[in-house]
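PROTOCOL LOG
Step 1. Enter all chains and additional molecules of the complex.
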Amino acid sequence: MRIPFLSMFMTSPFDGLEEHAGKVKSCALTFKKAIECHLSEDHREYDSLIKEVFRLEREADAVKRRIRGHLPKGTLMPVDKFQLFMYLREQDAVLDSVEDILEWISFREEPGIPQELAVDFLNFVDAVLLPLDLLSEMLMEARKYFQSYDDRQRNRVKDIITELRELEHTADKHERAIIRKVLNKDMDPITAFHMIRLAEYIGAIADHAENAGDMMRAMVAR
Amino acid sequence: MGQEFYILLIGYIFGFYMAWNIGANDVANSMASAVGAKAITIRQAVFIAGILNIVGATFIGSHVTNTIRKGIVTADVLADPHAALIGALSALLAAAIWVSFATWKSLPVSTTHSIVGSMIGFGIMAGGFSVIQWGKLGAVVSSWVISPVFSLIIGFIMFKLIIRLVLVKPDSYKRAVQLSPFFIGLAVFVVVLSFLFKTPLGKRLALSGLTALTLAFIIAAVIGWIGMKFLSRITDNSLPDGEEGIFRRIQIGTSCYVALAQGANDVANAIGPLAVVYFLVKTGSIGAKVPVPIFLLLFGGIGIACGIGMAGHRVMSTIGEKITTLTNSRGFCVDFSAATTVLIASKMGLPVSTTHAAVGGVMGVGLARGLEAVNLTIIFRIIAYWVLTVPAAAITSMVIYTILEYFL
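Step 2. Run joint prediction.
Step 3. Record the structure below.
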């Protein structure tokens, strides 16, 4: 039954954002497993994990389009629609980076990542995925802030944003260490180039998470 | 007995049908925010809406009845009792049919607009276009614009005040308790005032404006104070959202307030034309003003309550599922602005729509950034149906008039 009074109330875009953040999280987890398999040269498992990553990506993409498609002109929200879309774009860009990485790896699957860099890359991937766990938490706290407009709640959101920035900084250090190591090793130039680009692509994940935090900072600004 | 008796019987049936439709159509507007914010259960909502619509209709709802009937069509039409009789009947039936159709198709129409439109149709049939007081119609039309806007402004200010004074504060629970007499008192103040100024009972007391204001103020202050004491006893500070608990309790009161205002305002839509029929049959002639007997108001109130009882459950459960993001502080603002708008406007004799007042309240809270997503564009749909409702009801009324004229 359709009731005129109800047509004013629309599905909250925050529901969609939280769902999208959840997809990002599980996609990141699968991506990490895939990288581990790649390093241990378990090709069969790697292929199935990659398929899973792309499936989650498509799902997240559908969520993104649904959010964008269901906010017509004249929608009143606690935040600016433009800011909300920018936030969503950054959150989604994380998945684009994952896609870029897997593609870049596939361009030169043999010989893959050299053994002496394996541990560095594993730690690096761990470091860039840490901020992604914070995204859903940040969204939940922000939503509570828009309910209560309480300053303490606002500070909780801001603390998470600061944490995101710090995590990105740590990830950056890993990236620089890897690049330094590659450039100072006696490595064939093609592998060196492949590894440096790979490090840059992986680093982009944390960058986008930080950008999402910055957009959230704009949304909770008074 | 004879023909007169049957005409009166038909009048009662049409009037009851209209009242039933009002109940079925408007119940969502008064109870939606309270049910959506989980302040009351579906069963409670149906019960509160039913009882208080009867109370509001019977005790506060006499003033508007005259204005709707008299304002738009000149009294000359009523000079011929036969035409007046047929006209009142066809206006009732036309409005009821249109509201039924709207309920079925879930169009955002107002019962008030429907009756105004069908009155115009009757006027045109009985006396031609010259009997329509276009100036008065203009005033009525402007009041349709004013009511959502007024409600929007109250809702906006109320929510901004609640953010500033309660929600942002570190001790928001204590703040909410401290300010609760103000919120409760304001609602009580408006109810008492409209009771004193509008009802036969209030008029018999014959209080001067100043005395009435003072009396209303004292009653509001006392009830507000008692309410605060009561609230601080039954709510719990230790909960994380203690202040929402306060608003949840206040919202039970405000949803009563809306139901009361709705009954007072909407009963006239069904009972106005019925009163004309009643007087024509009883006295044979009719003046410019019809004193509406209290039992007719009670009759209308019961009709509305029956409509609520029949359709209420289904409507409420849909609302409970759909509106999930409304919190109690928001729901309170919506209720408060809608009821205040309706009571003040109907006290001024303007035929306002509770639908539009409720929509205005939601928009006000939305503009104050209180809701996660509200569609403002429904305003334009409502405007489209304003333009549509009046001529549609008018034409229906004209057709029914022609048919009835043939039989009676």
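Step 4. Note key features.
Residues 242-283 of chain B form the longest helix (42 residues).
Strands of chain B lie at 374-375.
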